[in-house]
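ping. complex inputs:
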Amino acid sequence: MSDLQGVLDRIGLTMAERTDRGRVASYIPPLARVDPMQFGMAVALPDGRTLTTGNAATGFSIQSISKVFTLSLALGRLGEGFWSHVGREPSGQAFNSILQLEHEAGLPRNPFINAGAIATTDAAMANHEPKVFLAELLSFVRAAAEDEDIHIDQAVADSEKATGDLNRALAFFMASHDRLSNPVEKVLGTYFHQCAIHMNCRQLARAALAFAGGPGVPNLVSEARRKRINSLMMLCGHYDASGDFAFRVGLPGKSGVGGGILVAAPGRAGIAVWSPGLNAQGNSKLGTEALDMFATLTGWSVFG
Ligand code: GLN
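pong. complex structure:
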């Protein structure tokens, strides 16, 4: 369908009528206070246009979507060597599960479950101080979004630190298997801050375009890296609901417990959707439904 704005308007109207909106994440207190009635979506096109519907200019905590950006930096820094730190298979388990780490000697299954993301941050940091790496990460995200007005929400970062014992357990477990090269508290401090990056759908859709590529899109992420990152998003970007997301949407995407989802439609567009209520697997409920509808109306699933 060529009338993309018409598609977005239709999705916006449909989502506004939804009464079952899932449940807002409660284990990070500032996230629990976000109004679940909100819904926003944006589609950034290679020609520079960004189409939107709903609360597309309202900022939210990107949470695990940040894992896509740190993976890009880690691959840029280590190349193929990165894969000795983290696997590339779906986990079939919850995002914060520790089960598989014990079975597999502390080597996390993929860069998007929490354990793998913590190991990815460790690899991407190299031996830089958290502040130095976070500045590099922010400048990468700002360049991808073509927007300097992107910041870390310190209150969210502090809250994650205060409630992050499970992430601490994952990190110490990996450290006990000599999987981390930086001190655990430094890696976790960096991870908590990256998750607290605050963006809106408009900015996130433009950043997603860096992973989608397309005519005239600046080559911030090389074609070879895009191919790998998109395949990981497709297979692991929604944790134990990745199969369902591929089945319903058929596009590479990465979710966060803040209710955002970043999607790359290869060669076509960067897409972002946000609605804070989550489904049982911790992914945005309305966000997933909106993308299902979008893929159906546009025919943009990579599976035809
Ligand atoms: N900061 C969150 C955590 O580490 C990110 C989880 C997510 O978005 N799925 O628990």
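The radius of gyration is 18 Å.
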